[in-house]
Automatic annotation (TrEMBL):
Keywords: Membrane, Transmembrane, Transmembrane helix. It comes from the Bacteria. It comes from Nannocystis exedens. GO terms for molecular function: xenobiotic transmembrane transporter activity. One of its GO terms (cellular component) is plasma membrane. This is Cu(I)/Ag(I) efflux system membrane protein CusA/SilA. The chain crosses the membrane at residues 345-362, 368-390, 445-466, 478-499, 539-557, 911-928, 935-955, 961-985, 1020-1041, 1047-1073. The keyword Membrane applies. Gene3D superfamilies: Multidrug efflux transporter AcrB pore domain (3.30.70.1440), Multidrug efflux transporter AcrB pore domain like (3.30.70.1320), Multidrug efflux transporter AcrB TolC docking domain, DN and DC subdomains (3.30.2090.10), Multidrug efflux transporter AcrB transmembrane domain (1.20.1640.10). Pfam families: ACR_tran.
Length: 1096
């Protein structure tokens, strides 16, 4: 393979015009691909999901659970590829979330669910309507807006009609939009409020009125007539348009009555709102009508948002006077901020790397080789990104960022090798001799370069092996990093040889005359001399450094993922069940008003309950408030106490202020703490998160807080008791910011239980009583009317004052049929049924076919996730052992949230990291063919981890998936540094061995000093370009920076310690090994060249 690469280098150098033209074409194609790569803030982190939404109007949660949710979940558990099935049963609605394995295509999954629904559909109760949710992901809520009328010309009902029948249709026709969900306002209804006494007086039943109303509104067709040679369409026009038309509906007519009996004679007819299960509020100023734009699966989110905003601009001109559209959430801002953060870091990185190369080489034309190759390698990476559909996110661009430093390594080593050859070449050599000299220099270092690039790629295997949310987040980073590395490797053996003859010309500074090299050698030579002369002391320093990092590493703490600063906050407080819609409105307005008072806040859009979408199963006890923030530059500053405050003299305050300013912008955690204190209200448990983060967590694990405890069982009261006990046990665990067991009981039910004997005595069936409850008390919509594009329902119900009191409810008259089915009399409801208040669940949750209760735990920022859960589990285990917490038969606990994902990631790493290290060792053996050399190179890895541990501790970073990705990348870089060091030391050693100059320990030391000191420039160029290329990520701010900092930090710290310890310790260990070989040669009489494998 190495000889084939050498032949390729020679061919590209010989046909450089063709090669350059080929890369011009590739560059143009890459630019076209760059335009097609979709933009998004983060990769889609959600599992493939299908939501089955069932509406069974007016039914209680327990009835919905028993007859709809449980049959659906039990059936869908057997579907192929299903990972989890979660059910939510609410008033009149059922939500079943079917989560599939991550490699399942979402449209294939929807087809499988449809097949299973076709089989179970006939077994569902009559009136239950089953539909599939939109083909969207858990992070599909990309844009939200509110309709407001500050002039007061339009009420909430009119605003809701504008949203439902105008804006919704306009936006759902936009390409990439799966659904536009309305929330808040009032859905207008024609409401018929019955007077039971009047019905009884006229011998009518509720069913008679319902039949009459159904026949009151409608249109018909008489097909076509021919009139005067022209065809005319016949239509009967009878839709209701006003209350008068409904009031005039005829219920009964006979000669005895004279005038017909109309609906207005026995009922009050009015316009009113439908039952509401959600509302929206803006800035604490009052109710508004809101909408959520849900993007389709796999689309370019930014393009969808831009198209939605363009369509809103188009339709805004046609809105009634005074109505305006206010943006309440716009993910395109996050996308732009995240991409800008990485763009700036990439530009800074490229500039820093270019300066490093230029300073070390002091040869502009030679420096152009890596400077040209760097952006071209990055650009070529967009070709496979476009082909594979990998979007440009903070993670995929982050992969490019951490690859930039390593991509120039091959070119640096090759250019430096060429400089070395030209330094000692005769000035009068021919062009052919010069070309052969450069090709020979390139071939000399090709094996080390080739295997070092392979090592970096192989070291990243654990990242490709990540699964779940961690895999979806970091695999794009691994792909793009690999793409850049492969492009750099290809450029180093194709374009670089073609350009080398053109650019590596002119005056070449030898290392002896190079000012930077002289300074480096002056500093480094004494250190390496002392290290080689005092090997035991040097090794003791190295061992001490490694040992010092172990306790630091153990105290870092752990978390699944650092918070991705999205630039907006999602405030999600919850309260006890049973909250009425009017009380929820008052509480929400108070919360929003307090949040809107802060100068950092631009807009507050609060939602309580659910929006009209299958993607939102929120109960009335849960609030979701999007807090749009102003740019951090506009936030107030905070005065901080520095170590020099109060005593530093005036002449020092200036430079100290620049390094450690006393006035700094407010941090994210400080802002959240202020907001939390302001909205603390009795009965509410707080949770501050971010929009994407919350929805991904809720989809993946079902909980929205970092830690959750799921209590599984079959008996709801037992689950309730265990959940409440766990809440009490965990409340005092250090680091608990808030904790809530979301009560499954506590809802209020009015139970109407038929007495079968009494029903039989009056000639009634249970179904007759059920129909009375549905129509007279429940208020079932019985008809619909059309007004242009708008649709309104007609609701029939007993008057409100007769159903607001249990005693009056018991007196409602139930019609009793006579022998001829004619109505002869009525009886009070209390004569045929028991009416009483009872406690029951306002919402039921199930998973894997069992009922489940959730304990939500939010932890303080200073507490690490892994340490907190260890303490919490210890408390729970102690409570179980003492009998303080009791789990009944069939009950069990599951710790979930981000902790569950962290556990899965760590378990995966325990398998993949050793595998990657084994593959790295195999590649090293293929390079050196000697186990001892392989082990010496692997020594660079613990030395590198020393700097990682200390820098992570100084920056107060915990071990997270992002940090582990950085450590994995560091393993490859550290091994690469060791390979380059060993190659240069071997070259010097074997050169002296061939010359017969290896006779004693001093000869070995001088050979190794030559291999290290005289070759220190390429090693430091490599390390400096890698390290300084990553430093811009450490000082980056904005969206996505927190994740990239934690990837870069272990790499930067590791490169620092690796550079120092590797340059000092590897020569020492290598000297020990070579000296042992020399002594064996002297003892056995075997030639040293044979023992060292010189001719291998």
């Amino acid at each position: 393979m190495i000889s084939a690469i050498g032949k390729l280098i020679d061919a590209c150098a010989h046909h450089r015009g063709l090669v350059i033209m080929a890369y011009v074409v590739l560059g143009w194609l890459a630019l076209r691909a760059l335009e097609k790569v979709p933009l998004d803030a983060v990769p889609d982190l959600s599992d493939p999901q299908v939501i089955v939404f069932t509406e069974w109007r007016g039914r209680s949660p327990t009835l919905v659970e028993d007859q709809v949710t449980y049959p659906l979940t039990a059936s869908l558990l057997a579907a192929p590829g299903v990972e989890a099935v979660r059910g939510y049963s609410m008033f009149g609605m059922s939500f079943v979330h079917v989560l599939f394995a991550e490699d399942v295509d979402v449209y294939w999954a929807r087809s499988r669910v449809q097949e299973y629904l076709a089989g179970i559909g006939p077994r569902l109760p009559e009136g239950a309507t089953v539909t599939l949710g939109p083909d969207a992901t858990g992070i599909g809520w990309v844009f939200e807006y509110a309709l407001v009328d500050r002039t007061g010309q339009h009420d909430l009902a009119e605003l809701r009609a504008i949203q439902d029948f105008e804006l919704r249709y306009a936006l759902e026709s936009v390409q990439g939009v799966a659904q536009v969900a309305s929330v808040g306002g009032y859905e207008r209804q024609f409401q018929v409020q019955l007077d039971p006494q009047r019905l009884r007086a006229h011998g009518l039943t509720v069913g008679d009125v319902a039949d009459a109303v159904r026949r009151t509104s409608g249109e018909s067709s008489g097909r076509i007539l021919e009139l005067g040679g022209r065809e005319a369409f016949v239509r009967g026009r009878g839709y209701l348009h006003d209350l008068a038309g409904l009031e005039s509906a005829v219920l009964k007519a006979s000669p005895e009555l004279g005038a017909p009996l109309r609906l207005g004679d026995v009922a009050e007819v009015r316009f009113g709102p439908d039952i509401r299960r959600g509302l929206a509020e803006l800035d604490g100023q009052g109710e508004v009508v809101g909408a959520i734009v849900v993007a389709r699966y796999g689309v370019n989110a930014r393009d969808v948002i831009e198209r939605v905003k363009a369509r809103l601009d188009e339709v805004a001109a046609g809105l009634p006077p005074g109505v305006e559209v206010v943006t309440t959430y716009d993910r395109s801002g996050l996308i732009d901020r995240a991409i800008d953060t990485l763009k700036h870091a990439l530009v800074e990185e490229g500039i820093v790397v270019a300066l490093v190369i230029l300073i070390f080489l002091l040869h502009v034309r030679s420096a152009l080789l890596p400077i040209v190759g760097l952006p071209l390698a990055v650009l070529l990476a967009f070709l496979p990104m476009a082909w594979l559909g990998i979007p440009a996110t903070i993670m995929s661009l982050g992969g490019i960022a951490i690859a930039i430093g390593a991509t120039v390594d091959a070119e640096i080593v090759m250019v430096e090798a060429c400089h070395k050859r030209l330094e000692h070449a005769p000035k009068d050599m021919s062009e052919e001799q010069r070309r052969n000299l450069l090709a020979e220099a390139a071939r000399e270092v090709t094996p080390a370069i080739f295997f070092s690039l392979l090592i970096i790629a192989v070291a990243f295997i654990p990242v490709f092996g990540l699964e779940g949310q961690a895999g979806r987040l970091f695999k794009p980073l691994a792909y793009t990093k690999t793409f850049v590395m492969l492009a750099a490797a290809l450029l180093s053996v194709t374009l670089a040889p073609a350009l080398r003859d053109l650019l590596v010309r002119g005056k070449i500074y030898s290392e002896e005359r190079h000012p930077i090299s002289r300074a480096i050698r002056a500093v480094y030579e004494p250190f390496v001399y002392v290290a080689l002369r005092k090997p035991r002391t040097t090794l003791a320093i190295g061992v001490f450094a490694v040992l010092s990092a172990i306790p630091v590493f153990m105290r870092l703490g752990s978390e699944f993922m650092p918070a991705l600063n999205e630039g907006d906050i999602l405030y999600m407080p919850t309260t006890f069940p049973g909250l009425s819609i009017e009380e929820a409105k008052r509480q929400l307005a108070r919360q929003d008003a307090r949040l809107a008072e802060f100068p950092e806040v631009e807009r507050v859009f609060g939602k309580v309950g659910r929006a009209e979408t299958a993607t939102d199963p929120a109960p009335l006890s849960m609030v979701e408030t999007v807090v749009m923030l102003r740019p951090p530059e506009e936030w107030p500053t905070v005065t901080r106490e520095r170590w020099w405050s109060g005593w530093a003299p005036s002449f020092l305050r200036g430079p100290l202020t620049r390094l450690w300013p006393e006035e700094t912008p407010e941090t994210w955690d400080e802002l959240v703490a202020k907001l939390s204190a302001a909205v603390q209200m009795p009965g509410w448990t707080q949770a501050f998160t971010m929009p994407i983060r919350a929805r991904v967590d809720m989809l993946t694990t079902g909980v929205r807080t970092p830690v959750g405890v799921k209590v599984f069982g079959r008996d709801l009261p037992a689950i309730e008791a265990a959940g409440a006990r766990i809440e009490a046990v965990l409340r005092d665990v250090p680091g608990t910011r808030s904790i809530l067991y979301e009560r499954s009981l506590g809802g209020v039910y009015v139970d109407i239980v038929p007495r079968r004997d009494d029903l039989a005595r009056h000639g009634l069936q249970v179904a007759d009583l059920g129909e009375f409850v549905d129509l007279a008390i429940g208020g079932e919509p019985i008809a619909a009317t059309i007004d242009g594009r708008r649709r309104y329902t007609v609701q029939l119900r007993v008057a409100e004052d007769l159903r607001g009191d249990l005693d009056r409810l018991r007196e409602l008259p139930v019609a009793v049929p006579g022998p001829t089915s004619a109505v002869t009399r009525t009886v009070p409801l209390s004569e045929v049924a028991d009416v009483a208040l009872a406690e029951g669940p306002p919402m039921l949750r199930s998973e894997a076919g069992l009922l489940v209760g959730y304990v939500y735990v939010d932890i303080e920022p200073w507490r690490d996730l892994g340490g907190y859960v260890d303490d919490a589990r210890t408390r729970v285990d102690a409570a179980l052992a003492s009998g303080e917490l009791v789990l009944g038969p069939g009950m069990y606990l599951k710790w979930t949230g981000q902790y569950e994902q962290m556990q899965a990631m760590e378990a995966r790493m325990r398998v993949l990291v050793p595998l990657a290290l084994a593959l790295v060792a195999l590649l090293l053996w293929l390079q050196f063919r000697d186990l001892t050399e392989v082990l010496i190179v692997l020594l660079s890895i613990p030395f590198a981890l020393v700097g990682s541990a200390w820098l992570l501790w100084l920056l107060d970073y915990r071990l997270s998936t992002a940090v582990w990705v950085g450590i994995i990348a560091l393993v490859g870089l550290a091994a690469q540094t060791g390979v380059v060091m060993i190659v240069y030391i071997d070259q010097a050693f074997f050169r002296r061995l061939r010359a017969g100059k290896i006779r004693d320990l001093d000869d070995i030391i001088w050979a190794h000093m030559e291999g290290t000191v005289l070759r220190v420039r390429p090693k430091l160029m490599t390390v400096a370009s890698m390290m300084l290329g990553l430093v811009p990520l450490l000082w980056a701010t904005g969206s996505g920076a927190d994740v990239m900092k934690r990837i870069a930090a272990p790499m930067v710290g590791g490169l620092v310690s690796s550079a120092f310890l590797t340059l000092e310790l590897i020569p020492v260990v290598y000297t020990y090994w070579r000296y042992a070989q020399l002594r064996r040669s002297q003892r056995t009489g075997r030639p040293l060249a044979e023992i060292c494998g010189l001719h291998r």
